[in-house]
Structures are given as C-alpha cells and as structure tokens.
Batch of 4 targets.
Target 1
Amino acid sequence: MSQARTGGNGRPSPEVFRRRRIVVAAAAGALVLLVVLLTAFVWPGFAREEPEPQATVTAPVPTPTISPSGRPEEGQTAFVKAQPDSVLALALRAVTEDKSWEDDADAVESWQLVYADGDGEGATTVEVHAGQWEDDDAATGAYEALVKAAGEPTGEGEVAVKGETTGAYVVTPGSTEGTAVVTWRNGTAVLQATGPADLVEDFYSAYPL
C-alpha cells in the first residue's frame, strides 16, 4: 500500500496539495459542464434545434387582363348595376335580358351574363343567370325548383352576409364533362353560374351577390 508523502513536520508535501487542487478543479469543471448541458438541452432547451417557423404565403387575387364590356348603354336596372364588372380573372363580356325566369318562375327581372378571361375559342368562360323576385318566399320557391332540376348535389351550404344567413347554395354537375353549376339564393335574388368544375365554386365565392 502506498503512503502519501509528508514533509518533515508531518504535513502533506506541496505535491500532494497540487494533486488535490487538480482533482478538485477537475470535479468542479465536470459539474459546470453538466449544469451547462442540462440547461441547454433540458431546460429551457435553447441549444436544441427548433424548426424554422413556416411563413404563410398568400397568393394574390387574380385580376382580369381584359376590360369589362357588354353592359346596356341605357336602361340598366339597379339589379343589373349590382352585377360585378369582374370576378377573379374573368371580366364581364355580355349582358342580355333573359325572360325565361320571368315567364316560368314569376321573376321580376332576369338576365344572362357572360364572364371570360379573354376572347376567342380558348377563353375560359362562366355564364351567370341572375334573377330578382318580389320577396324572399318567391325567391326561395324559385331556388328550390332550380336545385331540384339541377340534379344530385355534390356540395351545399348557407349564404351568409355579415354573419347572418341570407340564403343557401348548391353545387351540381354540369351538362357537359368537366363543368359544374352553382345555384344560390341571396335574399330576393337567385343566381346560377355554369363553368369549369375547378373554377366555378371559387367564382361563386368571389361573386358579391
């Protein structure tokens, strides 16, 4: 068994003191390192890699590249004036009176509107049939008849204005492949938009009536 060296007065030699100081310093260093590691990775965890926050990118609302046209030069009713000049990337291209809803469903007035993103064969178009009735009950009856005639719904919901329910809408397949029809009632107005299936619901959502 080895014995610690002592000086002539029976006290440990300076070398023993140096070794003790080294041991104490090493232990203290290890303790500090342990505290740093616990602080960094356990609480509050500032040294752990956190995922970068994902920025939300909102695409700009598309706007038409052509000017609206086709409104009657004279005699526009308040209802016609309320129809938008553009919806998303589609601009109003034609407005014609259509008396079919007046004759068949007692509308006060009804109109056919065409919205498009250009002219010519390759243009994307949405046709809107818009009618006005005397009161909510008459408009509701006309809306229900149109929905029944449109076929099996693929989507439906409520129309709300400033948080208050003012009507309803229904989405149905169009008569040609790749098209869909959205029929909706908003108060005394009933509208029906027909266009590409991947566009017409967004078109309806952006329509101000």
Target 2
Amino acid sequence: MPMPIPRQQAPALRVPTVSGSTFELSSDKPERLSLVGFYRGLHCPICATYLKELERLTPAFAERGVSTIAISSDDATRAQAMAEKIGASQLRIGYGLPLEVARNWGLYLSSGRGKTSIGIEEPALFSEPGVFLVRPDHSIYYLSVQSMPFVRPSFAEMLGALDFVIKNDYPARGEYTGAV
C-alpha cells in the first residue's frame, strides 16, 4: 500500500457532498491549507463525536485560512444522516469515496462485522480514519492515518500547532525518502 509523503502531491480526490456540490481537491483554494478528514461512516459513534468537534472548530480553522471537509465511502443517504447527526452547518460532508482512492491516500480498509454498538450495520468494506492537511499547491503538509477508530489527532491541538506553523513558516516534515 503506497503511503502519501509530505511535500509530494496529494492523490486526486473528487467526491459529491451532501449539499449537492462536488468537492475536488484540485479546485479547493484555501488561503493556507485544506483539512481533509476521512471518517469510517455513519456506523461509527466515535466518528460522530470526532466530526462534531470538527464542525464546532471549523470557524477557527477558517480564521487560520484552512478549509475543512469530512469524507467517507458511505452513500448519500448515510452521509446525510451523519451530517444531521453532527449538526453540520459549516463542515462540508463528502461521500462515495471509492475504496481505490482511499488506498491511494494510504488509508487502511476494514471488513464489515455486522451492527455496531449503536445498531447500525457496517458496510461490507470501508476505510479507517485519516486526517490530512494539504497546501493550495496540492502538496501534503501533514498526515495521520489510523488502523482503528480510536486515538485520533486532536483538532484543538491542531489549531494550536497551526498558530505555531503560521508564525514560524514551519516546513512539512517526514519528507525524506532516500537511503538510510
């Protein structure tokens, strides 16, 4: 499985959104960064809590020149249900992420195991979480992928880190791919 590398171009990404528009990373033009949060789907109660926090903090990200979107491989109905569940009014919600594209982003895939603790059926296959910050030139600045739904990056901590990054013009790290 190829893993995206900081300072290299992000994989292509184009998905419909619950608002009826299409999100295409190559057309997203934030002042500083696009925050792309991949989530497991409606079946995941941890995702709902996590996305509620991103919805709450989306204005603070916007103040720092960062656009936000949360994307899953769910269909339109399930994505709309998640948007309603988290009260999404500012956070864009994308859906229909092809699993091949999820793999291009370095996301882990899981097989469904029936109903979750909240009684919602898991899809046959779905991607695990990941958070990416992508520069307007479409190079990856930051990435974090998980193989489990637990222990994700804190959006509040990320805001503090962004203040440091902006003030100090801090470079993307983790870019070295040469011999060791």
Target 3
Amino acid sequence: MKNKNLKINKKKKSNKFKKTKIDNAISILKKQSKKKFIESIDVVIMLGIDPKKTDQNIRGATVLPHGNGKMVKVAVFADGKKAEEAKNAGAEFIGMDDLSNRIKKNEIKFDVTVATPESMKIVSLLGAILGPKGLMPNHKIGTITSNIYDTIKKIKNGQIRYKNDKNGIIHTSIGKINFSSIQIKENLASLIKDLNKQKPNKIKGIYLKKIFLTTTMGPSIEIKKSI
C-alpha cells in the first residue's frame, strides 16, 4: 500500500509545472498534446485592475501577426457601396433588415458582427440576441465603422477581440498547437504590447500580474513575463 501511495504522489507532481520561460512552456504543451484534433493555444492573463470600475475595464482587438488558426465568419450590416466592400473583403453575410430577420430566426451562425454607423438603428434592436453572445458591434474594438473593407480584412487575417471578465482576467486564443514556437511567441508579444497600451492611468501597482499558457485539453503553465 505504501508503494502505491508513492506512485500516486509522483503522478500528481508530474502534472504540476513551475513558472517557466515561454520557450519551455510551449515545448511542454507540444509534448503533452496527443489529441486527435489540433488544439488551440490559449492565454490567460490576470490583470491588476478593479473590474468593478468602468474606467479600469480592458476591452479591445489585436491583429495577431500569424493569426490564431481559426476560420472566422463575419456578418456585416451595410448597404450600397459599403455592402459591396463587405462582399469584396470576404464577408459571409451582408444585409440590413433582411440580415436582421435571418439573425432573429437563428438561420445563420457567425463569429463577428460589423456595422456601419448608419445601420446601428437596426442593429441596436438585436441587442438581446447579439449582446449575450458577445456579438454586438462596438466602437472601442472597431466593429462599428465606415471603413468596412479594411476592418473585415483585419478580422479575416487574424484579429482577435478580448475583454476582462468580472475577476479582471482576459482569456483568448493566440494560435494552434501546430504553430511554430516563434509564431506563438510573436502572437503573444503582439497581444501583450496592445494590453500595455491600454493600461489605465489609475493603476499604480502591477498591471500584468500573471500570464498562463494552456491548450484546449492540456495543462496550464505560468510563464515568466519577460517575453
């Protein structure tokens, strides 16, 4: 019985990882990944903010240099020349009242909503549907815009959107397990750079408190912040 307990303890210890450099963390995650699908590489960032204060909440979008490996479907509220721009940029669903009706009937699935300022009178009526799914267009992340073509291109080319949760934590995907270590590092560095730009002026202590890398089914590893 004593030997059996010893084996169990050793197994538990083997699943724990100390804070380490990003290269080592990526190496561990790649070795641990033995799934029949390509897992996502996710990052969890604990921020030193007070999420109860609106002026300290973090929300934005970052174009990852290597994308995050996901196919993104875009719904665009626009008409006329802006609708044509959306089509040329590769948007899957484009329209005004007709698009609104399709969303109300749950006929289409998409990942991002983009809207022209003029179309917001229609989009605002969909708040109860789009809001809970995190699909409501927003000025801060650039999805309410007149620059339709460039916005959609950025989204298609690897733009991710993020916001802190009620505990001041940001959780987003920055790639796939089959990305090279350099691609993962550069994607994370791009995200960190943008987050630092958004640091609230009132934050006096540590802003980026802890950073963890994980995969869809793998362990979570804390990494040293010097990326």
Target 4
Amino acid sequence: MEIEAGYDLAFNCDRDVPMVLMLSIHPSRHRDLLTEHKIRFSPNVTYRNYRDSFGNVCTRLRAPAGLVEIHNRFIISDSGRPDDLAPDAPQIGVDHLPDDTLMYVLGSRYCDTQKLSSFAWSQFGNIASGRQRVQAICDYVHDRLEFGYHHARCDRTAAEGHEECRGVCRDFAHLAIALCRCMNIPARYCTGYLGDIGVPKDPAPMDFSAWFEVYLGGRWYTFDARHNHPRIGRIVIARGRDAADVAISIAFGPARLINFSVFTEERMASQELGTCNHATTNRETAFA
C-alpha cells in the first residue's frame, strides 16, 4: 500500500532564533520512499541535517524574525500489515542483553522508574515474562489512563501520569516504558505518523503519535498502550529514551507555534500528491 503524509507548521519569531527540528522520517524508512522527502521553508533559510546519538535525522537552522513556515509532503510504501504481535518472543536476562540495549532498561527524564519499581514488581512479577508481561503492562496502562488532548502537559512524568490517571499518547508511552524497564525489559520511545488506516476515522485533528518498542527475543517489537491493538501504517520519525530525546522542535529563543497541521492517509491510485484532507491545530504536545 501507499501512504501520503506530511505537515504544515508555522512559527512566529520575535528575532532570529536558532532551532533544531526532528521532522524527517527515520533512516530505516528511507528505502520505502516513493517521492522526495524534503523539508521546505518559507522564507528560504539555510539549514543542514545531522544524525543524533540515537540515529535520528535532525535539522539545524536559524529562523529569521517574523513568520517562518515549514512544509513537507511525501509518499511512502508500506507493507499494509499490522504490528507484529510477537506471540512467542521471550524476555532476555539482563546479563545477556546487547550492550546497546542497556540504556533502555535505565530510568530517564520522563520515565522515573525509581518511583514505580516496587509497584511494578508487585503488579507484574507473577506474570510470565516476555510478550505476556509486556501485554499485561499495556492493558494496565490502557485501562489506568484516560486519554484526552485537554490533558496534555509537557512536563508530566510516568509516575505523575500514573497518579493523575490521565494524559495523551506520550503519557501512555512513558508509563508503559517505565513499567517495562522496572521489569528489566528494554523499552524505547517512538514518535511518528499514525493515520486512521483500517480503523474508524478519529474526528479530532491529526497529530504526530507516540508509541514504544520493547526488546524481546533478540529484536525490537512495537507496542502501543494508548490504542492497545495492532495498527497499520506507522511511519517512525525518531526513537529515544523518552520524549525529551525526540522533541519535534527545539527553539533556542522565543518562537511561538501558530500553525500545526499533520496528515497521513492511505493513498488511492487515482490521487495526486497533496490531495489528502487534513485539519489544523496548535497542540503543544507535539513539540514538548
């Protein structure tokens, strides 16, 4: 299947402001691109891309004073298959985990494992390790938190989300990640596109989405505590320890977000590039 995706963003800057953007799809999906994937700026600005320590593509620029518009749209090939359920994937003991997965067992800025460890072991310690334990964590988080865009708060930690019983997709991911790490399961945060493909269309304006991946049986598997069932058409932008590592936009000065529109839809054979319907919002959660 083919998916058309992209965004239209705009900032208003009081003066020249250095910025780092994380808006390019992850290099692991570059081979699937069917059209050019390029960030376009209005007015034109000088920018350069680099890869961070997690392998994500970042864009550096100096945004000029005034209105700065940022656009992209592209077509990408997708298998059309839902997330792999990993039914028999076992948990690997800490002493046998690859070195590069160990950072994803430790606490991080928003995944404050030290506050949740005792609870996690009491709640999930008697559940069979591996996929069953991860799914039990997803079920718990899905039932524990109430989703709502009006619940967005950019500094909420996993433990705070657990106590407040509410949040947006990043809070579902943070809590599930923290509980997995408490149980010595490597878990990492993902952000990207997730359209309403194969599911009823959500009437709310589209946003970038957050989910997580766990390391089981020698590879990474996708899980999503917010939706809590396999989905079709995820397009990863970035991965990290938590949302602090994959902020869509970091401005080193005053830059007000005044337009935020994201779209991702299955593309029909008769469509031309740029014909997708999309809505505009200014949710701060995408940039927190």
